[in-house]
Design a protein that fits this description.
2 helices; alpha+beta; about 70 residues; about 30% helix; single chain
């Protein structure tokens, strides 16, 4: 693996829209999604998953009390 490949690897974290809470950076999207779901359910907050570059990941916004498909 060269330097170009290493820098293109994304990291993810859950980010809350209602409080300053942020999850820790993880390499797997599904782990960040699980953390976002947990926070949304536990705190009744809206949470999304973002990458380490500050972008929201499409389809990863979790609202309290809403079922996900």
């Amino acid at each position: 693996m060269d330097q170009g490949e290493a820098s293109s690897e994304l990291w993810y974290r859950a980010r809350c829209c209602d409080c300053p809470s942020q999850g820790q950076l993880v390499r797997r999207l599904r782990i960040a999604e699980a953390a976002a779901r947990r926070h949304a359910d536990d705190k009744s907050h809206t949470v999304y998953v973002g990458d380490d570059r500050g972008n929201r990941i499409y389809g990863t916004t979790y609202h309290p009390g809403r079922e996900r498909p």
